[in-house]
Design a protein that fits this description.
Number of helices: 14
Largest sheet: 8 strands, mixed
Mean pLDDT: 77
Strand content: 5-15%
Structural class: alpha+beta
Distance between the termini: 60 Å
Number of domains: 2
Length: 449
C-alpha cells in the first residue's frame, strides 16, 4: 500500500488508516463481484426456466449470453482483486481501474445480449445483466472514494445509454419490438419506450447521487473518528485515563483552568527500593517496578481512585476527582487495604526475599486540581498543603513501624474511628500545629527500616 504522505500533526495516522480502509473496501468489493457472478447465474436459470415461456427464444438466448459472459467476467475480476489486495499489491489508482472494469463488464454484457437475441435497444432493461448496474453503484460506496463513485455513476449511465442507442432505440411505444413481433412482445415493449427509460435513467442517477452522498458522509465520519481517537491516544500518554474523557467535555473548562476543591490523597512508596535495585538486573528490575505499578493501578480502579502520577517506586492517588463525593475517605482507606492485600499475595506467589513492603499515607484537605499545559504536553496535577501532609504521613510509616497511616480527619470522615488507634499527635515536618495520626487497630506492623 502507498505510504502515507508526510504531513504535520495528526494528518499522517488519518491518511494511513483511510488508505488501509480503502484497500479493505476493495477486498470486500472483490467478494461482492463473486456474489454478483453467482447471482447472475441464478438469474439466468430463472429467465430460462420460469420466464422463458413468456418471451421469445431470441430474448432467452440473449439473456443467457449476457448472464454467462457477465458472470465469468465479474468472477474473474473479483478473484483478481482478492489476490492483489491479499498480496499487498493494491495501489489507490487501481480503484479507478477496478471500477471502470465493473462498468465495462455490465455494458459489454448488455451489448452482447442484445446482439445475440437480435433485440432493439429498448429491451436493454429486460436483460438480467442490466440489474447489475445499481448493484455496482451501491457496492462502490464502500470505497470511501467519492471521485471514483462519481465516475462510475456517469460512466454507467453513458454506457447503458450508448448500448441502447447503438442497438436501435424506438421512441414510440408502438414501434418497439422486432419485425413480426408477437402481441405479448408488443405489450412488454410499451414498458420499454422512451418515457419509462427516462424514469429509469433518473432513478439510476439518483442511486449514484445517493451513494456519493453516503460515501462523503462515511469518509467524514471515518476521518473524524480517526482524528478523535488519535488525539485521545495522545492525551492518554500524559493524563490519567480517568481524566481524558473529562478534558474533552464542553463543561470541563474549570478542570482545564484549575480549581480548588476538597480531595482525599493516598501516597504509597515501595520500601527498600535501593536495596532491591542493587540486587536485580536492569531487565528484572523494570519488570518488578511495572508489576508493582499494575497492583497500584488495580487497587485504584477497584475503588474509583485516580492515579495522579507514578514517581519512581511511589505513586499519588486522588479520590474526589472530578467532583468530591461523600465516600472519598472511605474509598481511599479501602483502596489502601486492597493494595496491602495485593502486595501480600504478590509476596506469597513470588516468595520475595526479603519480602516486598510498602508504606501508605492517607490524608484529606483542600487542593488545587487541574490540567495544565498544551496539547503537546498536558499534565494533571494536584497541589497544596494537603498533598504535602499526605506525603509526610506516608514517610511517618517508617518511624512508627506500620505499613499504613491516616490522618484523624480521614478516619473520622470514613466513619472508622473505632477501627483505628492513635499513634502520634506530634506536628509533622513543615507544620507547626500537631495532627492526630492513626494506624489500623489490627496489630499490623512492620519492622522499622
Amino acid at each position: 500500500m502507498d505510504a502515507a504522505s508526510p504531513a504535520a500533526g495528526i494528518a499522517d495516522p488519518v491518511e494511513h488508516l483511510v488508505r488501509e480502509e480503502e484497500a479493505d473496501a476493495e477486498r470486500i468489493v472483490g467478494w461482492v463481484r463473486i456474489l454478483i457472478a453467482l447471482g447472475l447465474v441464478a438469474g439466468g436459470l430463472v429467465v430460462t426456466e420460469v420466464v422463458g415461456p413468456v418471451i421469445t427464444e431470441h430474448a432467452r438466448r440473449g439473456g443467457l449470453v449476457a448472464v454467462v459472459g457477465g458472470a465469468a467476467a465479474f468472477a474473474t475480476l473479483g478473484v483478481a482483486t482478492l489476490v492483489i489486495v491479499a498480496r499487498g499489491w493494491f495501489r489507490r489508482w487501481m480503484a479507478w481501474v477496478f471500477a471502470t472494469g465493473d462498468v465495462a463488464i455490465v455494458v459489454l454484457a448488455l451489448q452482447q445480449g442484445l446482439a445475440v437475441a437480435g433485440l432493439a435497444g429498448n429491451w436493454v432493461a429486460a436483460l438480467p445483466a442490466a440489474w447489475a448496474a445499481p448493484i455496482v453503484l451501491s457496492v462502490g460506496a464502500l470505497r470511501y472514494r467519492p471521485a471514483v463513485q462519481v465516475w462510475v455513476s456517469v460512466a454507467m449511465l453513458a454506457g447503458v445509454t450508448g448500448v441502447a442507442l447503438s442497438a436501435g432505440f424506438a421512441a414510440s411505444p408502438d414501434a418497439v419490438g422486432r419485425t413480426g413481433a408477437s402481441a405479448t412482445e408488443l405489450m412488454f415493449g410499451r414498458l420499454h419506450a422512451l418515457q419509462p427509460y427516462l424514469m429509469r435513467a433518473v432513478m439510476l442517477a439518483l442511486v449514484g447521487i445517493a451513494t456519493v452522498v453516503a460515501m462523503v458522509r462515511a469518509r467524514r465520519l471515518l476521518v473524524r473518528a480517526v482524528r478523535e481517537t488519535t488525539r485521545r491516544a495522545s492525551l492518554a500518554r500524559f493524563l490519567p485515563p480517568e481524566i481524558v474523557p473529562l478534558v474533552d467535555r464542553h463543561d470541563a473548562g474549570s478542570l482545564r483552568r484549575g480549581r480548588r476543591q476538597h480531595a482525599t490523597l493516598l501516597f504509597v512508596d515501595l520500601r527498600d527500593s535501593t536495596t532491591i535495585a542493587e540486587r536485580m538486573e536492569p531487565e528484572r528490575l523494570s519488570v518488578f517496578i511495572a508489576a508493582f505499578r499494575r497492583r497500584v493501578a488495580r487497587a485504584a480502579r477497584a475503588h474509583g481512585g485516580v492515579v495522579d502520577k507514578f514517581v519512581g517506586d511511589g505513586a499519588l492517588l486522588v479520590f474526589g476527582v472530578p467532583q468530591p463525593r461523600p465516600d472519598d475517605a472511605a474509598r481511599a482507606l479501602a483502596c489502601a487495604r486492597t493494595l496491602q492485600a495485593l502486595i501480600e499475595r504478590w509476596n506469597a506467589k513470588r516468595r520475595f526475599d526479603p519480602a516486598v513492603r510498602a508504606g501508605i499515607g492517607v490524608h484529606a484537605g483542600e487542593v488545587f486540581c487541574g490540567v495544565i499545559g498544551d496539547e503537546q504536553r498536558l499534565e494533571f496535577t494536584v497541589l497544596g498543603d494537603a498533598v504535602n501532609v499526605a506525603a509526610r504521613i506516608q514517610q511517618a510509616t517508617r518511624a512508627h513501624g506500620v505499613p499504613l497511616l491516616a490522618s484523624g480527619a480521614v478516619v473520622a470522615a470514613a466513619g472508622e474511628t473505632k477501627r483505628w488507634r492513635e499513634v502520634s499527635r506530634e506536628s509533622l515536618r513543615g507544620r507547626r500545629e500537631p495532627m492526630p495520626i492513626l494506624a489500623p487497630d489490627d496489630g499490623s506492623a512492620m519492622p522499622a527500616a
